[in-house]
Each structure stands twice: as C-alpha cells, then as structure tokens.
C-alpha cells in the first residue's frame, strides 16, 4: 500500500523570513504558510528545482534556509517555543534539552491511555522523523500522518506544533477596499453612551458559571479535557451550540477533519440587506500537560470562549439587532496548528465572503501579580487598521486596560489574515505569555491570577468594536 505522500524524497524545503515581496516570484505557487519561532514570522515554500534556481539569484534569497528531504514526506510539522515571560523559564530549562527530549519521545512508540482522552496515544513511528530545519526555538519536521495527529501531546511545555497543509496555499493580501471600510469606522469612532450601556452589562457571574462548565470545575459537565480528540470537546461543542442558540443565533457544528471536534459556527441575521460580516471568535479546544488526561483550558482558550458567549448573552439581553451579518465562532483544532480556522477561512474565501472585521480572542484571563489589567494586540500577524480600531475602542470603553503589543503570536486570526480578511487578536498581556498554567493541566478558572474583571474589560472591547463596525439597533 502506498502511503499518502505529500512529496517524494528529494523535495526542496525553503524557510525564509516573511515578506510580501516573496510573493512577487515563482515561489507563490509553492507557499505553505507562515510559521513563528517566538520572534520572527517565517514563510515555508516547497519550490521545484527550476523555481529555486531562478529565485536564489534574488537578493532576498540570502536570508533563506534551503533543505532537501532524504525521505518521502507524509506530513510536515512546524514546532516552536512560544514567546513566554522569562519568569516562567526555570534555571534548568534549556530549549536544546527540551527539544532533544521531544525528539526522543517522537521515535519511541508509547501509549498513554486515559479515561477521557483515548487518542492520547503516540502511534508506532515506523517512518521515523526527519529534521529539515532547526533554530534554537523552532523546527520543521517530516513525520508520519499518525505521529502528526498526536504530536502536540508529546511536546514539552511552551512548545507548540502546527501541521503544514497538504497542498500549497495561496497568499491573499488584505484588499484595499476592505481596509477602507475599517478606516471609515475608525474615522467616525467616538464615545456612544448606548454602546457603553450595552457593554457594561456583560455579566461576570454568568461568565463564572460558563467557564466552570467548560473546564469541568462545576463537577456536572463531566468535561475532563477539550483536546480536539477528547470526548469532552464534543460535549463542549454541543453545549456551546445550544447556549448560542438560546441567544437567537443560528448555529452549525461544522466538521473540518476526521477525528477532530467540529467548529461551532453561529450567525445572527442582519436587519438590512447586506453581505458585510463581522466575525468574533475564540478556540474552545485545549491542551494539557504531557502525560495527563486533564486539559481544562480555563485560560487557553476557555476565557476567549466564555467572552464570546458572554457577548452572545448580552446581545440577547439587550435585544441588539445588527446592520451587518454577525458571526460568533468557536474553533477546534487550534492547538494542532489553527486547523479549524484554516478550514473555515478557506471556505469563506471560496464563497467570496465579505468579512469586514475579524477578531480572535485567545487567553484573556491571566494577570500577573502587581500588573495592571491589560490588552495585548499582535505585533506582526494582523491588519494594522483593525488593531488600531480595537486599541481606540479600548481607550474609549475600557480605559482601565493598559494596551500594548505582544509577540505571543498567532491564534486563529492568522488563518483569516492569510486569506486576505481584515483581522486581529486580543490577548491578556502587552508582552509575552506569563500564565504559569499555559498548556498545563492546572489551567483552571479558580486560581490565583485568573481575573474575570480583565476578561470582562476585554469582552467590552470586543462587543463595542462589533457594535461600532456592524451598526446596530436596540429593541429593549
Ligand atoms: C456585496 O454587496 C455589495 C453591495 O451591495 C456588492 O457590490 C458586492 O458585489 C457584494 N459582494 C458579494 C461577494 O456578493
Ligand atoms: C463589504 O461590506 C462593506 C460594508 O458594507 C462594503 O463597504 C464593501 O463594499 C463590501 N465589500 C465587498 C467586496 O462586497
Ligand atoms: C486612536 O488612537 C490614535 C493613536 O493613539 C489617536 O491618535 C487617535 O486620536 C485615536 N482616535 C480616536 C477616534 O480615538
Ligand atoms: Zn490558545
């Protein structure tokens, strides 16, 4: 039987710092997406020999890394150490040792069976892996399909994996017209007491109930893990669908890859005839500690999920109707490399959807001792005008937040950015990740530093941005 092969031995991999100028060349046809290494955004290409030869004559080529695969490639996986605060790094942690330990696990067959996470198994790795590119904080690996599916479960703390797509992806810049719309909203933005009354009514007690269901801390939901393959993620998906529908939205569970829990896509119809669509999102899947079956994802990304649910509940409570289509989406497969959002953004692009603003909320709750409540916005991946809009809305409606940029890059908004939709992200800190429970089985909501008031402040910003950019009427 011939395994499903992405590229035969001899394939050329090219990794180079992202620049829009890269796409003015033959490389465009062999683009496999952008990947981060904690500091830089890199683009991955798989050019043929002729393209490589003509391209390497260019000046840009001097910063490119080129590798040739010695084995057939089934699946490429990018792994990176996330940008985390130095306070989280122990004296003994070294990127090199962590990564070597991971490579060892990758080549050692092992089964980790758990009650709620039956697929927490590292399959036989007959193919082995091939290391194609490596820096101290990132690597590009070729692995078998089986290994790829569960690779996130054997990564060391603070490391994250992204599955590289199985076909080349296009590069679609955000169209000038789309940016114009955001600029128009920005130019007319000013304090509106009606908007303030709506966003101030976001309910913290309700958020506390909701997050305790999603993490399983309520002792009733039975959710142990919302890992994309775990039973708990399906419980969460059905529950989210029902809760969003309670608020007047029409929801669909949209599967995107076999074995993965589905995306939960909810829509409110506009009261005028328009194709303009504002989309707010979060990812409801989670990750736990290596070897543990518990993945409560209280902050990552239960906090973003409860924020968009709180927004839905507020839309219902205040009888908000929109002058634009509004979608609230909870993605799955984020932890395996933005897989749910990539599939959905691709679908929207194929449908020629008119997404006017997209905002992903990922990790809103953690506030380090002694720090003020904050709102972090993406330094690299995102549409500057949308990021500016969110920053301005924050200054107006949540002045308690200190707004700044973060290098903790890249959640599901990257999938939309790649498809040329105006997008940004909201995050809990104007700096690298400081949550000591990041990707940890202890990521509960009932703990030191988990700040519901900060989540509310950020949710106010999301909802106010939605109201200002979509246009609205209140019926209550
Ligand atoms: C969306 O509506 C605008 C204005 O009516 C129209 O010009 C445009 O073609 C529509 N776009 C799509 C993709 O249907
Ligand atoms: C998208 O909607 C906005 C807001 O209504 C409109 O200005 C713009 O022309 C639309 N774009 C497309 C491509 O239909
Ligand atoms: C938005 O923020 C920028 C930069 O901080 C500021 O110059 C501008 O006046 C703000 N605009 C509004 C409408 O608040
Ligand atoms: Zn996340």
Automatic annotation (TrEMBL):
Q: What's the EC number here? A: 3.4.-.-
In which domain of life is the source organism classified?
Answer: Eukaryota
Q: Where is the signal peptide, in residue numbers? A: 1-23
Needed cofactors, names only, are: Zn(2+)
Q: Which SUPFAM superfamilies match?
A: Zn-dependent exopeptidases
Q: What are the GO MF terms of this UniProt record?
A: metal ion binding; metalloexopeptidase activity
Q: What class of enzyme is it?
A: hydrolase
Q: Name the chain's protein.
A: Peptide hydrolase
The species is Mycena maculata
